[in-house]
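Bench log. Compound arrived from synthesis this morning; before running ITC I wanted a structural hypothesis for how zinc ion sits in the protein. Inputs:
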Amino acid sequence: MTDQKTMARAIEILKEQRYYDSIQGLMGWDLWEGLSEKGQPYRQEVSGYFTRQALDQLKSPETKKVVDALREMGPGDFADVYEQGVAHALIDRYQNAVQVPEELQVELRNYTGRAQMAWRDALDHNSFEEYQPWIEGLFQLKRRVAEAIDPNRPTFDVLCDTTDEGIDTAQVGAIFANLKTGIMEILDAIREQHQAIDTSVLDVEYTHQQIRDTAYEINLLTDFDGACAHDSHVLHGMCTGVGPRDSRIAISYKGTWGGIFTMLHEGGHGRYNYSSSQRAIDCGLWGGLRGSMHEGQARFYENIIGKSPEFWQIAYPVVLRHFPQLKQVPLEKFYMALMKVTPSVHRITADELTYSLHPILRFEMEKDWFDGKTKTKDFQEIWNAKYQEAFGLMPKDAREGVLQDIHWASGHVGYFQSYTLGNLYGGMLLEAMEQDIPQWEQQMAKGEFSAINGWLHEHVHQYGMAIPPQQLLRQVTGKDLTEEPFLHYLRRRYLTKLR
Ligand SMILES: [Zn+2]
């Protein structure tokens, strides 16, 4: 095969693989959106069937031939970064398909389908005991997957690599230690000021519909394209990229105003998903990089934009339109109440400053289990002890503690670090963006988002998954992963702006 023919066939195969992704995405979305209780077994059967179809294609002699030819090609043989991305993506998929036995992949997919329903029931019953065997089962399955991918590397490193290509847990652990120290220093400096902030203005009567409408409109202020997204209301906020211009956003309304930030967060995922260039779509590379880069985009819109005082100059009028009872409350008072830093036991509703600590605790728990230091039967106790140590707080029950996240049930083990890493990526991107758009905050205050969105599109979104994350980060910022720009941003916001 000539290089040209190889590439043409590689793109076809990758695009067909993405069709299977779309089917699984749609079925994953339906799990929460439309599936009846007794419809589960058949859904699993169908999902398993398509998993096998996708694997059969990857393991076929023809794919092997294409992959072998791709491996022969050097950097100079590719027309652009997209072709290089196709080769990278197809080789990666092929390797995973060949290395992880098919039965194991189907078993994992079926197990996570059932585990998510078990998590929901355990949450209803407030019972860690009910959920614990499922955590155990999931962690064991993930261990088998990691060992199949690379039996010679530490299991947890392999798992984290499947979330965030190119990072290792030792590097992440060291960066997290510095970050923890930096955040605790800021927290100590502002603790008294924030304890004195009166949040009673936030306690208003509300309906879910009111919050949903407010959140939806505020998200549109950032020039979010509603024609590429669908929004709905489920138990847990999430965004499923079903197709290149099809982002399914779901919002949960725990904690009133939190719905606004969940919407901006999932909107950030949705935007990254729908903003791929046509070339990325044509190559089957749409949707963005998995893990930290995706979380980074979500958290950029949720926090760096969504929690800035400049953005609230345009967001507050929307709030006032839906909540006329707040008319007497000045923006400054409402905004400071929203921004109050209060260490708590909940990750999702955590304030911006302390948020990064929550995923770090989960990352440490996962790492210790995979290093053989702990047992899942002790997870509730370990969880509570970690919260006691970090925040001086004890979850009052399982629901408030170890049951609060769906992640383990959905198979996202070795994933939590990506939330905190996403913040670090956001900090690095912001530092680079400010060089090009020093007036970005003033623009937001006027409702102008074209420069900000355009910058992110040009430097990150357009590429879809073409360029591996560490390479992309270096290309955009000129640096390797570091916590310093994010800490600098936090200090500016909490030690200077909000004083
Ligand atoms: Zn997210």
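What the model suggests: The chain has a mean pLDDT of 94. The longest strand covers residues 238-243.
ITC booked for Thursday regardless.
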